[in-house]
């Protein structure tokens, strides 16, 4: 895969008639964009296309498969993120990648290949309860891996709504807000009615019987009367953190 500088050099050579168009096209076609490992076809050009490298979803993969994909991505990615990784799998990964870091609550593995400058603007991650923190940490860590400042505000659900009001100024200072809630999922609507920032709502599977594994919270968030709310899938902290990062960088202009 050619870097931006290499592409510019190639195009300059064509412009100066140092090489022909057909020769340049052949060089581009020969560049590797996929690394076929047999069990996985690693997308090596995703960061160039989308601004972010491929993320490894660890659930359902063996430690050996994760290690193989990390090895492939290391040559092309700034930071490598692997979600939904058990401590047992990480112990095996760390033997091969000793610099990899494990975040137990988020169940994520992070390998820093190149430090990314932090944004000046902030993403606020807000939870209804302590039980929602695992999903919130996945969201917060995802955002941090991609260079965002994150402010965590946990356990401020509607059952004790005065706790939320104590942190309202902090939340309003954020450029993007992620609200993580289970049970009936009402916190997203409450926060959405109090701020003028984009809000990403994350329903969690936390709750008793009629929570239906997060479906009740999901439906509440989808039917919110507060404007400006975007809803991701149940327990999808990664998706919320990724989307919030894109929004935050888009505003700041700090990421291509």
UniProtKB/TrEMBL annotation:
GO process terms (BP): 'de novo' IMP biosynthetic process
UniProt superkingdom: Bacteria
GO molecular-function terms, A-Z: hydrolase activity; phosphoribosylaminoimidazole carboxylase activity
One Pfam family cited in the UniProt record for this chain: AIRC
Stored InterPro entries: P2CMN_synthase_LarB, PurE_dom
Phosphoprotein found in the keyword field: no
Chain segments annotated as coiled-coil in the UniProt record: none
Limits of the PurE domain: 121-253
EC number: 4.1.1.21
The keyword Lyase is annotated on this UniProt entry: yes
Record key words, sorted: Lyase
PANTHER family, alphabetized: PHOSPHORIBOSYLAMINOIMIDAZOLE CARBOXYLASE-RELATED, SLL1489 PROTEIN
Protein name as it appears in the record: AIR carboxylase family protein
Organism: Latilactobacillus fuchuensis
Recorded name of the encoding gene: purE
């Amino acid at each position: 895969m050619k870097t931006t500088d290499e592409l510019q050099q190639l195009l300059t050579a064509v412009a100066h008639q140092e090489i022909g168009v057909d020769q340049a096209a052949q060089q581009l076609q020969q560049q590797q964009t996929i690394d076929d490992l047999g069990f996985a076809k690693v997308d090596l050009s995703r960061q160039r296309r989308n601004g972010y490298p491929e993320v490894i979803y660890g659930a359902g993969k063996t430690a050996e498969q994760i290690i193989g994909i990390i090895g492939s991505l290391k040559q092309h990615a700034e930071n490598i993120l692997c979600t939904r990784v058990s401590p047992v799998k990480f112990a095996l990964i760390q033997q091969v990648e000793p610099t990899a870091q494990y975040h137990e609550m988020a169940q994520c593995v992070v390998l820093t290949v190149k430090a990314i400058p932090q944004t000046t603007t902030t993403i606020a991650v807000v939870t209804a309860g302590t039980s929602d923190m695992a999903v919130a940490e996945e969201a917060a860590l995802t955002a941090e891996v991609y260079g965002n400042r994150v402010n965590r505000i946990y356990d401020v659900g509607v059952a004790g709504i005065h706790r939320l009001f104590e942190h309202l100024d902090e939340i309003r200072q954020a450029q993007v807000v992620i609200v993580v809630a289970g049970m009936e999922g009402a916190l997203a609507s409450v926060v959405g009615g109090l701020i003028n920032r984009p809000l990403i709502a994350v329903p969690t599977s936390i709750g008793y019987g009629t929570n239906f594994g997060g479906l009740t919270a999901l439906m509440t968030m989808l039917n919110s009367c507060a404007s400006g709310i975007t809803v991701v899938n149940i327990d999808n902290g990664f998706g919320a953190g990724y989307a919030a990062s894109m929004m935050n960088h888009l505003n700041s202009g700090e990421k291509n």
